Amino acid sequence: MLFGLLALVHLGIQLLGLDDWSRPTQVLLMPALALVLVAAVRRPRERLLTLAIVALVFSWLGDTAPAFASGDVAFLLMVGFFLVAQVVYVVAFWPYRARSALYRRRALLIPYVGFVAVLVWLCAPHTGRLLVPVLLYGLILGLMAILATGLNPRVAIGGALFLVSDALIALRAFAPGWDLPQGGFWVMSTYIAAQTLIVLGLLAHERNREERTGGTGTGA
After folding, report:
1. How far apart are CA 40 and CA 107, in angstroms?
2. Radius of gyration of the chain (CA)
3. Over the range 151-190, which residues count as b (16 or more CB within 10 Å of their CB) and which as e?
4. Helix ranges, 94-182 (H)
5. What number is the average pLDDT over the span 172-196?
6. Where are the transmembrane segments (predicted)?
7. How far is CA 20 from CA 8, 10, 16, 67, 172, in A?
8. Which residue blocks in 1-130 are alpha helix, DSSP H?
9. Are 142 and 112 in contact (CB under 8 A)?
10. pTM higher than 0.70, yes or no?
11. 3-class state of residue 69 by DSSP
C-alpha cells in the first residue's frame, strides 16, 4: 500500500516536472519495496529472497548517491551501485539458469542480445572515457535479464523492463536525439514496474516452493 502510493506520487511528480520533489520521493521507493519483501516472507528466508533484498539496497544506493556528486562522478556512482545490484541479481538467478533462455527457447536470446548490441552501437561513440563502465554494465544487465527468464513470467518481464529502463537512461545520457518526451517518467515507470514485478515474481516462486515442500523444505 505504502509502496504503491509512493510510486504513484513519484510518477505524478515526474509528469508534472516538479524536479525539487523528484529525488526525495525516489529515494523512498526501494526501501518501501524491500519492506514489502521482508514483511511477506517469514524467517529463515530463502537465499534467493535474501539476495533480492541486497539487490534492492544497492538499487537504493544507486538512486541516492548521485545526489551527493555531479557530472561524471554522479553518473559513475549511479552506474557503480546499480552494477552491484545487477551482479547480485545475477548471483540470485544463476541457480535457475538451466530453465532460462540460456538453455531453453534459445531463440529468446536473439531479442536480448540484439537489444543490447543496438544500445551499445547507439551510445558507444558518445561515451568517451565512460565507455568501459557503460559496456560492462550493459553486459551484466543483459545477462540478468536473460537469467530472469529461468524463474517465472513476472520475474522475466521485470528483468526485461529493467533492461528497457536502463536503456532509456543510456540514450538520454549518450544519444540525446533518441530521448523520449517525458523521458524521466518513462525511465522511472519502467524501473518501478521492473523492480515490482521481480519482487512479486520471487514471492510467487517462494509460495510455490513452500507448497512443494510442505513449508519445511529448503529450495534452491
Report:
1. 35
2. 17
3. bbebbbbbbbbbbbbbbbbbbbbbbeeeeeeebbbbbbbb
4. 109-123, 131-148, 153-174
5. 86
6. 27-42, 49-69, 75-95, 107-124, 130-148, 155-174, 186-204
7. 16, 11, 11, 12, 20
8. 2-16, 19-40, 47-64, 71-93, 109-123
9. yes
10. yes
11. coil
Of 179, 194, 184, residue with least CA distance to 10: 184
Cell of 74: 554522479
What pLDDT does 124 receive?
A: 83
- pLDDT at residue 215 in the model: 58
Render pLDDT for 70-112 as a digit per residue (tens, 0 to 9): 877 888 888 889 999 999 999 999 999 999 998 888 888 899 9
More confident residue, 180 or 29: 29
CA proximity to 25, closest of 53, 1, 2? 2
C-alpha cell at 62: 544507486
- The band of 218, judged by pLDDT with boundaries at 50, 70 and 90, is very low
C-alpha cell at 195: 523492480
Which whole number is the average pLDDT over 131-138?
86
Q: What is the pLDDT of residue 96?
A: 93
Task: Tell me what pLDDT residue 216 has.
Answer: 53
CA 42 centroid distance within chain: 24
Mean pLDDT in residue range 137-160: 93
Q: Pull the grid cell for residue 11.
A: 510518477
- Print burial letters for 5-14: b (CB count within 10 Å at least 16), e (below 16): ebbeebbebb
Question: SS3 letters for 12-24?
Answer: HHHHHCCHHHHHH
* Domain spans of the chain, in order of start: 2-213
